[in-house]
Amino acid sequence: MKKILFSLLVMGQITIAQNKIEKDSTKTETLENVFVTANRSATLRKETPSAVSKLTAKTINETKAVAAYEIINKTPGVLMVNLGNEQHSMSIRQPMTTNAYYLYLEDGLPIRPMGIFNHNALLEINQFNLQNIEVVKGPVSSLYGPEAVGGTINLISVKPSINPEFKFGIQADQWGYKRIQAAGGATIGKVAFHIAGISSLQENGWMTYSDYNKDNLNVRVDYNISDKTRLISNTMWGKYYSDMSGSVNEEAFYNRTYKSTTDFTYRKSDALRTRLTLEHDWNDNASSYITIYHRDNKLGQNPSYGIKWSSTVKPTTATGEVNSNNFKSYGAIGQHTQKINFLNTKIVGGALYDYSPVDYWAYLLEMKAYLNPGTSGKQTVDHYEITAERPDIKLSDYTADIFNKAFYAQMSFNPIEKLIVTAGTRYDNLKVDYNNALDNSTGTKIYDKSTFKAGANYNPVHYTGIYANYAQGFAPPAITSIFRAKPGTGGTTGKPAEFYYNLEPATFNNYEIGGWLALLEGKLNFDYAVYYMEGKNELLNVRLPDNSTDYRSAGETRHKGVEFGGNYKLLSNQLNIRFGGTVAEHTFIDFKISDSPADALQNVNAKEMPQAPRWSGNSEISYYPNWFPKFRTSLEWQSVGNYYQDQINTVKYAGYDIFNFRAGYEWKGIEIYGNIINITDKLYAYNVSRANTTSSQPTYTAAAPRTFLIGLQYNFSFRK
Predict the structure, then answer these.
(1) Sheet order of strands, 130-137 included
(2) Can you give 654-676 as a three-state secondary structure string?
(3) Which of 39, 188, 284, 386 satisfies CB 3.0 to 4.6 Å to 43 for a cystine?
(4) Cβ-contact 146, 475 below 8 angstroms
């Protein structure tokens, strides 16, 4: 699983660059001001014309997160939506969506190949192997290619320690969750290594049929060939299986009847990622690396979201599906970074080649729906039962070879003092050679695009700076969408299957200005960004009354907002106040829903996009008393504003405000901690949605009641 592309960059080139930066920095510039992701090389915040945030090792360690969303939601402008058992969707400069508008990196290398996006990709991450997390908001396709549109999240893993270190911990809550975790590493001569593993288990939780188990192991080995040359190996192995409890209806939600309608849905994932990186420092101004990598992923599921049922058409029957999506990847990426004295110029250039064969199939399940009492047309389902598996009725069945070739370059320079100009471009050629067994067709789809960005930083004094940025982004449709039979075709309909061969790539133009401020010798830090992003041909998922999905990619959207965040340390750094949030608006400008004059709903022009809260934020107060060393406590506020449930803007969900409490104490390497999540036991849902008809009923992705997590961890370090 692990890190092939930026481990290289992260270990050698970055370490050297960070050391130089720290020596030359003022009191207001700390290690937290150094970022890797936004420019593919270690760069000071004041030289980065992008909205970028870092979650440090301290934040990650103190959060003691069960799932990644607990950490990532601390980033201003980010709302990672918990879908249960580490499954998730995302909202960064986009509504809460499962579409392929986010790029998830592991030490700079995409977790998935282009075209095989999965919104649940971060469930494969080992939370006990994270050094820090960097989040870039807005398009960075000019460096990373397709899908790097709404945001890019780079999970940077722990590097081997110089001295022998070992950590072991356990944690559990009252709802049947428990986890064991261990990590250790050392440097012996020219060889350094780090190993981290977790094993999570959920049984008999607050929601029926919601068990899961997850095992992850990460191994990194570094060989220092010389002072200038390093060989870095990373391997990740992961195994995951989860019941899919799904959503609940409105009555069950407000009655806190956390009962799944299925006892057969599941998601399982087997993942292996390995990489080998050779990096070399030619001199103080030049460094290069080359990485070869391999991925092997098997994702199978009987998804709860795949159940199709109508309250008005044969309400006692339903259909579902079983599907499997498997791929392997073989690829290489190389990059060179060069500094030139003329105008303090820095050039970053690289190339990538990725070959990923994939096969996907899905077949029909016939079901019986047992109804709750209700008036005509308003029934809801108590539970479903599989009556027949129909592997003879395929919903999808294709194989494809995906080839991705890319070239990128970026240059920054100082035309005048205190002004830094950055410009970059990338060309991607994504070719899909496919064989669709449902219509016996073969062919090739090519999505190629050049993307560009340009920005500038102006830092008039050492404690403040501003930037402006223009960036393009693009995202081809996920191939699982292309080869999905359209509703009302194929299967048991008696009609030939029709497919989404004409889905267009989504393209984006993002304009933003922002800045940062550091005062009181770094005790007060504040940053902000104002953005305006235009989208064309965004993939629109039209939810039909029976819960099936129709796709459109012909129209225009607009995304605009303000993001802000800050930290204030006081009482001799005993008290830290962190605050952040975003005010945003996401709108359909011109989006046709139907081509049929008989349909009542023709378009959603000028409507707000659903699942798009105008406000979301996360803030926290942390206390580290001098009179009680190594004790910590914090109170966190997570806030999500109201949003429309449907695409025609008829019904809103009110949103929620919840509070989380965390405390911990370490004594002689033994750390004991406790978290209280949702301390007021508030009833709320992570997501609420419905179809575009008056008879549609909302579905609620219910959030957990008040949760008490306790843990114990032993930290050992042998320091010479």
Answers:
(1) 51-55, 130-137, 151-157, 102-106, 109-110
(2) CCEEEEEEEEEEEECCEEEEEEE
(3) 39
(4) yes
C-alpha–C-alpha distance, residues 700 and 710, integer Å: 28
pLDDT at 391: 95
- The encoded tokens of residue 324 equal 């499997």
Query: Nearest Cα to 649, choosing from 588, 558, 583, 582?
Result: 588
Residue 720 class from Cβ within 10 Å (0-12 exposed, 13-18 middle, 19+ buried)? exposed
- At 609, phi and psi to the nearest 5? -70, 145
Q: Which residues of 397-408 are buried (b: 16+ CB within 10 A; e: fewer)?
A: bbbbebbbebeb
Q: What share of the chain is helix, strand, coil (3-state, %, to 5)?
A: 10, 60, 35
* pLDDT at residue 292 greater than cutoff 60: yes
CA distance 480 to 475: 14
Using an 8 Å Cβ cutoff, are 195 and 235 in contact? no
- Residue where the block lists tokens 């949702």: 678
* Residue given tokens 């290594």 in the structure block: 193
Answer whether 81's CB lies under 8 Å from 700's CB.
no
Cα–Cα distance, 65 to 182 (Å, whole number): 15
pLDDT tens digits for 349-387? Answer: 999 999 999 999 999 999 999 998 876 557 889 999 999
> Encoding tokens for residue 686?
């992570």
Q: Whole-model pTM above 0.90?
A: yes
**In sequence order, what are the residues at sequence separation of 6 or more whose Cβ sits closer than 8 angstroms to the Cβ of residue 311?**
377, 378, 379, 380, 545, 695, 697
Distances (CA, A) of 643 to 37, 611, 640: 31, 6, 9
Structure tokens given for 372: 């709750």
Among residues 226, 319, 331, which one has the least CA distance to residue 4? Answer: 331
Measured CA angle at 357 (ends 355, 363), to 5 deg? 155
Give the helix/strand (H/E) hosting 72.
Answer: helix 69-72
Q: What would the two tokens of residue 660 be?
A: 């989380």
